[in-house]
Amino acid sequence: MTSAERVAVVGTGLIGTSIALAAIRAGDAVRAFDVDRATLERAAERSGLTPTDGLEECVRGATLVFICTPIPSLGALAAAALAAAHEAVVTDVGSVKAHVLAEVEAVANPEHLARFVGGHPMGGSERSGPDRASPAVVDGIVWVLSATPRTEEDAIARMEAWVARVGASPVRMDADRHDRLVAMVSHLPQVASTALMGLAATEEAGEPEILLLAAGGFRDLTRLAASSPHLWSDILLANREAIARAIDLYVSRLARIREMVLADRPDEVEAAFAAAKQARLALTAKPQVKSGVAVILVPVPDRPGVLADVTVTLGEAAVNIEDLQIVHSPEGGRGTVHLTVAADAADEAERVLRERWFDPLRLA
After folding, report:
1. What residue ranges do the domains of the chain occupy?
2. Phi, psi torsion values for 25, nearest 5 degrees
3. pTM (whole model) above 0.85
């Protein structure tokens, strides 16, 4: 059994406070510091961590230090933590790794780099602040660990053990490869969401009814546009080359679809949609779901307990829900539950839902 750690968290926003909550749940003692005292006090009230008055007090005696601040400050704070906590493994939670590792290597004492492990917990949401924190933010997520050339194996192994102990999945990855991949699957979706919301807001500014016509697809695609502008500006600028390449590829794909539509080539348009649909269904399925997945839409009234009715119905029939999403009607009063289940369980799911007076529609 892995022994408890003495954890220090520098920066008590959503991720920092969620890490504190997960550490406390796992039996660790946690101290924290934030330059915004009000934020620190809210985090302490929310999580039970011990607030401190400065970085050195926070990290003194710690065995693990998490730097959870905006990207521009990560390098200097990591170097300071390495210097102040002589026995601690120090990590960060930045969404960009090559930039952060280069900054830490540039400003930290070279002798301290053996204890630095770059990190990126692939959790969080468009929400921010300690009031929205939860240990569930790290449950089951992939937690990328990237080493510098000087990082010792023992430091990486200690981080891996801690990440697994709090319920996440540690994955070692080269920093450049990490940045290239997250540019495509994390940073580009944010850019696309922001661009689409900005387009609708400016191009249709004279159409007050436009939001009444905004169906679930528009709301889904623009959810990320509610994220912190300051946070995402830092992320994109720190990963500028990788995100520029991802945007270029995306624009090229959009241009090809545009060309198919203008040239009236229905077979090619349908093929593009079919390929994307299959890829999306495969993304939803867990590796052990060999039969593929099916998506079932279940219209529901907007009332307390209706989601429980749906999930209990499927649970009693031993149908596992692989994914679930609720799309509310813009008019209010009703919505649609999007259920993803294993393909070989879809018939049973439809049957038991109909027996409970639901009206399921299988899409795939």
Report:
1. 6-173, 179-264, 284-362
2. -60, -35
3. no
CA distance 361 to 297: 5
The band of 145, judged by pLDDT with boundaries at 50, 70 and 90, is very high
Whether domain 284-362 has CATH 3.30.70.260: the reply is yes
Q: Closest Cα partner for 320 from 304, 356, 296, 302? A: 296
Cα 154 to chain center, whole Å?
27
Q: To which CATH superfamily is domain 6-173 assigned?
A: NAD(P)-binding Rossmann-like Domain (3.40.50.720)
φ, ψ for residue 125, nearest 5 deg = -160, -170
Q: Which residues contact 92 (CB under 8 A, 6 or more apart)?
A: 66, 67, 68, 74, 78, 100, 104, 118, 119
Reduced to 3 states, what is the DSSP secondary structure of residue 50? Answer: strand
Cα separation, 152 vs 148, whole angstroms:
9
Grouping H, G, I as helix, E, B as strand and the rest as coil, residue 180 is: helix
Low-confidence winner among 36-40, 186-190, 270-274, 277-281 (lowest mean pLDDT): 277-281
pLDDT reported for residue 257: 95
Q: Which residues pair with 10 in a beta bridge?
A: 33, 67
In the CATH scheme, what is the homologous superfamily, with its name and number, of domain 179-264? 6-phosphogluconate dehydrogenase C-terminal like domain (1.10.3660.10)
Whether residue 340 contacts residue 324, with contact meaning beta carbons closer than 8 Å, is answered with yes
Residue 326 near residue 337, CB atoms below 8 Å:
yes
Q: What is the mean pLDDT of the chain?
A: 90
End-to-end CA distance of the chain: 44
**Each residue's pLDDT tens digit, 292-317:** 788 888 888 888 889 999 999 999 99
